[in-house]
Amino acid sequence: PTLKMTKSNLIFRQLFDKDTSTYTYLLGCAETKAAIIIDPVLECVERDLKLVNELGLNLIYGVNTHVHADHVTGTGQIKKTLPNCKSVLGANSGGKADLYLKDGDKLSFGNLTMESRSTPGHTDGCSTYILHDQRVVFTGDALLIRGCGRTDFQQGCAKTLYNSVHSKIFSLPSDYKLYPAHDYKGMSVTTVGEEKLYNPRLTKTVDEFVQIMDNLNLAYPKRIDVSVPANLVCGIQD
Ligand SMILES: N[C@@H](CCC(=O)N[C@@H](CSS)C(=O)NCC(=O)O)C(=O)O
Ligand SMILES: [Fe+2]
């Protein structure tokens, strides 16, 4: 039998901010060097732009999965350094951005295409981004590894989140890799198949899920009062 090797044209870097346990993803087209960054953190912008430079990438979009409550986005700061880089946000987020994506919209960079799916529930504007050819998905806080985003502030709604994850993420092929916006347990990646089997919240019925989410009793994120207003204006307040 012959083994068919396919060369991936995706440049992929998962970056981590220890202070807020946030993952940032740098994605680039190997052929054209066009690149995007998903969920950059303000305090890590220098690190991230150094990497962009070292890899010879041309950063054209700074994308957020949602209006974050726990850290200030780096997109506004990135735009100051790279004026050709446009900020991107979900259409229902209520935040300021250069470009808004609604359910089903596609964003292209170089020879790569990313689909945006609206996955509300953690916030109204939460988006999940999918590169079908590469079989990778960026779930933001809608789906975390063996967990999910909380639903007790911003426009949180457990039932909505449950429906979003089941209809827009669990409907994808089971081998698709899922990359969340945070991890608090030292995990870095999961798959659709794994979460459908082992997610302790989302494998339950919708009523059980709502019960679980109503009783998480989590402390509010330490930086919520600074982060939400800042992120509504791309991280930079005039
Ligand atoms: N302790 C952290 C905040 C932790 C937190 O609330 N995380 C959010 C995602 S950031 S909006 C969440 O949805 N967590 C779900 C969970 O089950 O942990 C801080 O102070 O920043
Ligand atoms: Fe969040």
From TrEMBL:
One Pfam entry name: Lactamase_B
Gene Ontology BP annotations: glutathione metabolic process; hydrogen sulfide metabolic process
Q: Which reaction does it catalyse?
A: S-sulfanylglutathione + O2 + H2O = sulfite + glutathione + 2 H(+)
User: What are the entry keywords?
Assistant: Acetylation, Dioxygenase, Iron, Metal-binding, Mitochondrion, Oxidoreductase, Transit peptide
**GO MF terms, alphabetically ordered:** metal ion binding; sulfur dioxygenase activity
Subunit record text: Homodimer. Monomer. Interacts with TST. May interact with RELA.
Q: Which protein, by its recorded name, is this? A: Persulfide dioxygenase ETHE1, mitochondrial
> What is the source species?
Ciona intestinalis (Transparent sea squirt)
Lineage, broadest ranks: Eukaryota, Metazoa, Chordata, Tunicata, Ascidiacea
